[in-house]
Amino acid sequence: MSNWVKVAPFADIPKLGARVVRTKNKENADIEIGVFRTEDDRIFAINNTCPHKGGPLSQGIVYGDKVACPLHSWKISLIDGKAEEPDVGETACFKTKVENGFVYLELKD
Hints:
109 residues; mainly beta; Rieske Iron-sulfur Protein; 10 strands; 0% helix; 47% strand
């Protein structure tokens, strides 16, 4: 079962920027999700933690459909959460949608 949660007005997420959504996973542990807006106004959401050393991806540089981790410049795909080669690792991705000027995030029950 899925649950769509309204997270922010679309206009509040800057181009090439991000916002952080704090929620709980199914084990009731706190998680942070980075919601990113690309130059061409696509919205993506991935776990805010880099798979390398746990850097806050929402503070990284967004370019194309990737984000560069602010700690060690690992490039993480906003599409599938995978690190760009030669680096190896991935972070969780979340579905997003924009309706009536608001960004929604799908959280699984």
